[in-house]
């Protein structure tokens, strides 16, 4: 290939990667949204054309409406045992059905999250969250426990996705889905639960079969337990959310739950008196092995040989109940930086791809930057990476905060002993 051919092929591939990173789908209609979808056409529905998960098409109400051709014809012609429903009743039920089968749509329509720039916005999944979502959905649809371990870069909303997926299971699939949020300390654990308490304030009550305008709240039962209540402070769901920490392990032992979120396990205290494995086994012991249960263990890498690393290795080797999911920095949409002269940048990247020593002000070799391209990073991502790297004197800190693969992540987040490309994570 000529230099011009190489340049053109890199630019073309970069556009493909950028488009994928943007996660440009419509969470309302479902157009281009992740997962296997089909077109559902109901001419008199608020959204006449929706691309919905294939499982939704098996619903009896959906099949009946399609048989008659519209909502109004269904109401007029179907042999109901009692009085026929109103148009509004049927339309709301269709929305509830879609909320049950389509997490991406439910999250956008029902959940508000805190925006980085302030205020609250609808929850639309980013690319990294989509990756985890697809893994969770594969396990859920296979009838297996949704047990995943996430080794990750920072700041992409991993806890946000995981905690709302747990809530979706509780609200739409399994009413008795109680779960635990466990962290290094209570401040972290409660900050995760706070996402739920804020989102519940604006949750549409009709989605749970309650009157329009009803105000919901996630209220404290005690310092370690929350429950969902209506405006009259009446409990409305048969599930609880528990908060626990490695520092106070006895506070959450022995609860019968259906799920758990273990946050930043890599930084948990590990002493003879308090071992992460003991606490997690205690919580997991109360979670049955059955469909629609969920355990998420997530952390940035914090050194090799600890409990999180050992659990990750077992998951990768498929000798664990957990499914291993790695989220590198280049899956994160905001870890990019515009390039002033794209031709100059590509030339620098290609011409230096075999250089084993850093050049100029950049702290890594040309070979390393080319390796990032081969992994799947965008050009704008590599530009972000080389500038971000300037703020870290120690490569280990960069690898821990923004790992490129799991081998690098664990090898460099502790003390470097071997070439990370020659060892197995």
Task: Please tell me about this protein's structure.
The protein is built from 15 helices and twelve strands. The chain is an alpha/beta fold and 425 residues long. The chain has an eight-stranded mixed β-sheet with strand order 7-8-9-6-10-11-5-12, sandwiched between helices. A hairpin with a 5-residue loop joins strand 3 (112-114) and strand 4 (120-122). It is globular, with a radius of gyration of 24 Å. The two termini are 35 Å apart. Mean pLDDT is 92; it is low at 415-425.
Q: Kindly report how far apart the N and C termini lie.
A: 35 Å
**pLDDT averaged residue by residue:** 92
Q: Tell me about the largest β-sheet.
A: 8 strands, mixed
User: Helix content range of the residues, please?
Assistant: 40-55%
List the SSEs and their pairings.
Elements: H1 3-22, E1 37-41, E2 49-53, H2 60-68, H3 71-77, H4 87-101, H5 103-110, E3 112-114, E4 120-122, H6 127-141, E5 146-152, H7 158-173, E6 179-183, H8 186-200, E7 217-222, E8 225-229, E9 235-245, E10 259-263, H9 276-284, E11 294-299, H10 307-316, E12 323-327, H11 342-351, H12 366-375, H13 379-389, H14 395-401, H15 406-413
Parallel strand pairs: 5-11, 5-12, 6-9, 6-10, 10-11
Antiparallel strand pairs: 1-2, 3-4, 7-8, 8-9
Helix pairs in contact: 2-3, 4-5, 7-8, 14-15
